[in-house]
Known about the structure:
42% of the residues lie in helices and 16% in strands. The protein is an alpha/beta fold. The protein has a single domain (5-404), classed as TIM Barrel (Alpha-Beta Barrel). The strands form 4 sheets. Strands 1, 7, 10, 11, 13, 14, 15, 16, 17 and 18 form a 10-stranded mixed sheet that branches. A 4-stranded mixed sheet has the order 3-4-2-12. It is globular and about 60 Å long. The relative contact order is 0.16.
Amino acid sequence: xxxxxxxxxxxxxxxxxxxxxxxxxxxxxxxxxxxxxxxxxxxxxxxxxxxxxxxxxxxxxxxxxxxxxxxxxxxxxxxxxxxxxxxxxxxxxxxxxxxxxxxxxxxxxxxxxxxxxxxxxxxxxxxxxxxxxxxxxxxxxxxxxxxxxxxxxxxxxxxxxxxxxxxxxxxxxxxxxxxxxxxxxxxxxxxxxxxxxxxxxxxxxxxxxxxxxxxxxxxxxxxxxxxxxxxxxxxxxxxxxxxxxxxxxxxxxxxxxxxxxxxxxxxxxxxxxxxxxxxxxxxxxxxxxxxxxxxxxxxxxxxxxxxxxxxxxxxxxxxxxxxxxxxxxxxxxxxxxxxxxxxxxxxxxxxxxxxxxxxxxxxxxxxxxxxxxxxxxxxxxxxxxxxxxxxxxxxxxxxxxxxxxxxxxxxxxxxxxxxxxxxxxxxxxxxxxxxxx
Length: 437
């Protein structure tokens, strides 16, 4: 039985039927009259072959609502994300939720409250703690950048760490075609032939809001989707900066961008597993920085999940978000203000649930530990009073002890050698390659 949490309540519906329909229709109007930029020739070619109105010079595609909705209807309502250990397989779909760690941080705030650039060693330790935690369904998602590793080899070193230190489902960046092709090759080494099997890897596809998918994200989207792997299409919108200031307009834009991305995955491969995502909040108009854990952010995730249900799609939400620079009352409050709406709205995949501080620039080791304790409390609450009480795990005082007693999940020595050989070969081949050109 997959490891996802069963949600015991009906989803909270923020919008009434008329409001939901108005946002839906406004999204379709945006797609038809304004369109979306797809900055990749292959993506433009797919849209043109499907009958969309493609302006090749401007890289702008205007999408007929019938075409979009027909494509979106081909996406699965639910799917299982396979892990190296089947005990950790995750079901994503109606009535369930799975927790993932923070991702994309450049800095570490360690137990001495020193903020410094992230290293591969930091990343490996965060995977170890996440692997051991019963509260996290995913263990590896670039919790911190390995800034001590050459850029061309970072995805390879992350993959090695994720595959050897964890046997939970695998996430790795969908940045362009080269990185995702390497990910797929390593997955074939570990899982065998991927064709016709449930997905084993995936990652976020961010929209460069407003109304633009860049070449790097499109390369990742097409490569993963064509191989039957997971993408979660996630517009990142700060109302007042990347969208109109009202939440209704921001939600219409988020919905339009997400629908376009989901539809493209189905052009690449009908039935490809995909989540409709959203990361919309408001802008702090005094400082110009993202405001996180706010009522506006709560509205956005509740409405986004409700719209996803309208289209029969699982939704990616967010938890653990805060603008605070340390583990304090602000961090705790904003964390709960982002996690509760994702759960109440029935987000199937909830990311950034452990370690996030500083608006996403930094992973705090103390907050990572605090968040794991909170996630275990959420898990116990969801399972009901008959469930055994989860053991609190870990805190800053026993972090080193937990790492010292960590045992990596078993792996065949021959497979480990094959992974190392692939990493060594590809690191040499990519040494002078600009992966982000």
